[in-house]
Amino acid sequence: MVESQHTDQIGSRYIRFAENEARGRSPLYEELALGVAGDPSVLEFLAQLPYAKQQPNLLFAAVRHLCDTPRDWEDFRRSLASRPDEIREVMLKRRTQTNEPARCATLLPLLALLPQPLALLEVGASAGLCLIPDRYSYCYNGVDVEPSSNTDAVPPRFSCTTNLQTPIPRANVKIAWRMGLDLEPVRVENDEQVAWLDTLVWPGEENRLVLLRRALDVARCDPPIVIEGDLRTDVPRLAAQAEKGATLVIFHSAVLAYVLSEKDRAEFAQTVAHIGAIWIANESPRLIPGITEQACNQCLPGEFLITMDRKPIACSDPHGRSLRWL
Q1: Which one of 49, 144, 213, 249 has the fewest beta carbons within 10 angstroms of its own beta carbon?
Q2: What's 257's DSSP letter?
Q3: Does the structure show a pLDDT above 90 at 157?
Q4: Cβ(277)–Cβ(248) under 8 Å?
Q5: Domain 101-325, what fold?
Q6: DSSP state of 285
Q7: How many other CB atoms are found less than 10 A from the CB of residue 98?
Q8: Domain locations in the chain as residue ranges
């Protein structure tokens, strides 16, 4: 029997997910998260897993992967109770590699301010869909930004609402070199791996799925290179391969939560500083090394904080729908 304190912590994590992330986006995921938080047997199931595998996104995606999307909490609970070992196996094998290309809409205004062309190195790149912002279209409060690099596929158009302080780009960025790093890269030509990306899109946000599939079509025309490796050890080696004369940018979105050690996160920050690259983080604010409590409090619950070399720049919607320049 797992200590109640541990299951209470997991329950609190699911309540935060329901209130700060799922609410207003996915009514089903909000219902499921609150259901999990109040169900001792499901909390016990989660407590037997490593911390990194207890995430709401991973649990819900694993159930949907094996049992289809549940109608409601009772349907979800029955599905989990009927196949716990198989669901556990999926959760241990898979990762929440949500490759959200719409995050490019919140990164583009900052990338466009940098000296062009850029050399992009993304850590936690998944399928590399955020490595190709130059191939997408954007709409900022009615202002369109078109691709600077064309493909045979029709690009997705990402809409992002901004505040008056946001420097909306006049043109898309120029990219001279790009590479990704991931523990388990997702290959855009692998149908099984791509199907898992589909499953990670939340019910109630079907438009995200449409945009994801269009981004995958664009990526398949010229797949970005994503190398298997660990951000704690392999970033310097890849950074050394960047195009000379281009502005080297090391960036990531929603990655630091999976680097569980605060020491590891601090060492990663030191590594990037030693390389001399521009470091852009798009993360939950309290996970970014060196960020003050005052900076954290500028973002609303559930928002990410975008920083450049640890300086707060903007608060962003985790799925790219809005950007508030600070």
Answers
A1: 144
A2: G
A3: yes
A4: yes
A5: Rossmann fold (3.40.50)
A6: G
A7: 21
A8: 4-93, 101-325
